[in-house]
């Protein structure tokens, strides 16, 4: 066989392989394009959840230092969310309470929160966020936060009271330090105490500001939404 014939045969043999590669590449590109179109369609058709503190909105996320009886550690609210939760399914609901440790109403609400935790602690996760309102005499710090939560001796809760005398039991849930009020804007906190109830997926289920006319309180809201009463 001559050299020319050998080269021609090699070229003829290589031809179909090149066409196969082109077919595979074209098929891959078509598959990628179709997949991208399907994903875009799903994204466009999926409902957009608004972030905010109102009922039906996704609760504003935040990250801050927190205290649960030991060392202060970082806490992120959204770590509690179960995004795959569906109504009627299992999952912990979430109570988010805002307080000022010098606020007399927050001081009194300590007993109600203890009662709610005793009744619903197996089904509801409690989170207390501590802020410092711009009111004369309302000056807090982490020592005061710890004493308010734990009901230990500290002169300064409710402005000039000993934290050990706070109504209710020691609170065994997480307390978050937001003394600089970095989260109050997103949550539209009008004052303290402020307590909201979230579904397990982080959607706001109950906001007290939306129930000022019907008079429903947090205890009734939990009973209705979590307990099905």
Strand order within the widest beta sheet: 2-1-7-4-3-8-9
Distance between the termini: 94 Å
Could you name the CATH homologous superfamily of the largest domain? Answer: Glutaredoxin
Shape label? elongated
Here the CATH topology of the largest domain equals Glutaredoxin
Please state the average pLDDT score.
88
What is Rg?
29 Å
Per DSSP E runs of 2 or more residues, the count of β-strands stands at 9
Query: Major β-sheet, in short?
Result: 7 strands, mixed
Number of domains: 2
Order of helices and strands: HEEEHEHEEEHEEH
The proportion of residues in beta strands is 15-25%
Helix content: 25-40%
Q: Any idea of the CATH class of the largest domain?
A: Alpha Beta
Transmembrane segments: 25-46
Protein name: Thioredoxin domain-containing protein
Keywords: Membrane, Transmembrane, Transmembrane helix
Organism: uncultured marine group II/III euryarchaeote KM3_152_E04
Q: What characteristics describe this protein?
A:
229 residues, alpha+beta, Glutaredoxin, 2 domains, seven-stranded mixed beta sheet, two-stranded antiparallel ribbon, 9 strands, 17% strand, transmembrane
């Amino acid at each position: 066989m001559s050299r020319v014939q050998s080269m021609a045969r090699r070229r003829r043999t290589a031809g179909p392989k090149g066409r196969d590669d082109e077919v595979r590449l074209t098929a891959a590109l078509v598959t990628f394009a179709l997949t991208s179109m399907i994903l875009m369609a799903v994204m466009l058709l999926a409902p957009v959840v608004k972030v905010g503190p109102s009922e039906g909105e996704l609760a504003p996320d935040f990250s801050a230092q927190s205290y649960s009886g030991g060392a202060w550690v970082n806490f992120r609210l959204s770590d509690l969310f179960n995004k795959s939760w569906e109504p009627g399914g299992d999952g912990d609901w979430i109570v988010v309470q805002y307080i000022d440790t010098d606020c007399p109403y927050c001081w009194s609400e300590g007993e109600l929160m203890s009662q709610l935790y005793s009744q619903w602690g197996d089904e509801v996760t409690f989170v207390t966020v501590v802020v410092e309102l711009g009111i004369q005499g309302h000056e807090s710090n982490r020592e005061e936060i710890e004493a308010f939560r734990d009901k230990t001796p500290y002169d300064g809760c409710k402005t000039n009271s000993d934290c050990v005398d706070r109504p209710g039991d020691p609170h065994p849930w997480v307390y978050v330090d937001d003394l600089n009020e970095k989260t109050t804007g997103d949550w539209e906190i009008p004052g303290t105490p402020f307590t909201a109830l979230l579904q397990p997926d982080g959607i706001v289920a109950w906001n007290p500001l939306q129930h000022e006319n019907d008079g429903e309180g947090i205890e009734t809201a939990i009973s209705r939404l979590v307990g099905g009463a």
